[in-house]
Amino acid sequence: MEVIVIGAGISGLAAARELSKAGVETIVLEARDRIGGRIHTIHDERVGIPIELGAEFVHGDPPEILDLAKEAGLGVVKTRGKSWFLDQRGELAPSGDEPPGSDDELWNIARSYIDEHKPDISLAEFLGLPITAAVSDGEKEWVKRFVSGFHAAEPAKVGIYGLIETQDAEESINGITSHRIREGYSRLADFLQLSSQQSGAKFFFDNIVTSIDWDNRPVRVRARSVDGQNFFYEGSAAIVTLPVGVLKRSMGSENHVNFSPEIDQKRSILDRIEMGCARRVTLAFKEKWWIESLSTIDRSKADLGFLFGQNVPISVWWADETSNAATVTGWIGGPKAIEMEKLEDEQFIDIAVTSLSRIFGVGESALESHLIEGFTYDWHCDPFSCGAYTYMGVGGADAPSRLAEPLSGRLYFAGEATSNGHWGTVHGAIASGLRAAREILETL
Known about the structure:
alpha/beta, FAD/NAD(P)-binding domain, 3 domains, seven-stranded mixed beta sheet, 15 helices
């Protein structure tokens, strides 16, 4: 009896480990030549710390990650550093612990609204309601920027119900805090793969799944390699961990997966789940040149944590103050990321340097003289993710739980989009993989 896990992202790895440890023959099919999916860590000896091109933070205190990291012997380090704010005049100043747009006033109004109104509406619609009239236009603009950046969401598409649910989920695990995996997120994925293989799981790479026939047992999966070679697999059941961006690919498009019979009961659910667009860039420098600039303003807060700006191409930045490495990461999400999705890597890195130059008032040539390397990745253009991570569209608050429901005891679904309020997170993805594996074990 075999179970086929489609996708070696963190949810697929968690599922494979759970199944193989229980004695179930498990095979994992992965389209890429590596594990991890949207966890993508670069280890460059010139930099001195892992460079995360995908997931980076451990949000809050999720046991799914903390317990696993402890078992794997990995260090979980709490982030530190002060937050800074760049105002419209282009002046830097220390800010509070919360990013602009994340305070309670408007979100409390939103909670009151959903308590009294059933139909879900978009954030953009909500901000236009009379009940938000007391909130300043500036604060509303920061809220839209916060949601676009943090949730990678478009204000005209993201539903209020989903935003509140994910905030409640975040608060349940002390989401105001954040950590990093000291050795890099990829080491967590490596541990899961090794553990799975030690229990008998088999991994097959360069296997781009093209069709899944789940009408009867055995479930039949067809895959192809980049060079066109075909592969066929059979199992008692399959766990689909494909990102929503891939599941939503239309017939005839690249990497579309054909389900037989068609999963019509899931299509309307997928219509209410959006795949967010985000792009990030990490610049590695020879030294932490920004400390001198910040010290002239407030020496006690010169250790840079997050920086939130405006009127610059890339307005959200953070540094890793837990290490001596001189790296800063820039981030854009939502509509702004969509505008820049087709830029070449070098173009985006140049824009990052320009943004820092304008924020700190330092010449671009001076920054370039300190620059060791720039690292970036465009997840929206990645054919095996088609986006960064999910958010719930209007009317989509119940979509994750419905997407997670198995079909006929043969087809199971996992991935961050199927988690309970923790979509868009690594711990949500891990929890979903464990849930799907346990559903299979109960059935078997």
